[in-house]
Amino acid sequence: MLIHRYYEWKLKRELKSFPDSLCFMITGEDITDAPQKPLEVVKWCKNLGISRVIFHINTKKSESVDSYISSLKKISEIARLTLHTSKGEEVLGEGMDVFVAVGMSGRNEIASAVKKMAEEGIDPDIVEEKTIDSYLEFRNEPDLVIKTGGNHLTDFLIWQSVYSELFFSDVNWINFRKIDLLRALRDYQTRKRRYGK
């Protein structure tokens, strides 16, 4: 335990810059196995001064939400939680922004944005990136996306995260520790962001 504390202290000392917005992509199985982990992670991020945290829970089993919804809502005790589920959007608490999206699809979001533009008669010749941005449901552009468990990314925020830095952790969500977060942040600060240039 002492060695872990020392390593955590050492990693913190190496960190000079932090992402403003951080996104975690996890599976339905991850959240079922460790429903308290998002609250724990939010506490870490809050103490580090990160402004916004996003969690995408990749699941098609909407009925499974009931088993972990109460754990997710506890985030509102220390932050402003915006919770998106198949039942709609709910905003709770105040403080740093935390967004949790359960079972949302980036492809469906873009398709929905295009449909809305068509319904409103938007001239295709005037459609630019900013136009599409304004029709998206999620306006968050994460600086860093973390995927635990070594699995592939989901399609969530596929438009918004095009310039995001990606970090793949071999550690499964249930075993994800503060040290693993600090490692991801250390990796982030070594990168030169080009924003597609």
Automatic annotation (TrEMBL):
Transmembrane segments: none annotated. The keyword Cytoplasm does not apply. Keywords: Transferase. It holds the Pfam family Prenyltransf. GO terms for biological process: polyprenol biosynthetic process. One of its GO terms (molecular function) is ditrans,polycis-polyprenyl diphosphate synthase [(2E,6E)-farnesyl diphosphate specific] activity. PANTHER family: DEHYDRODOLICHYL DIPHOSPHATE SYNTHASE FAMILY MEMBER, UNDECAPRENYL DIPHOSPHATE SYNTHASE. This is Undecaprenyl diphosphate synthase family protein. It comes from Methanochimaera problematica.
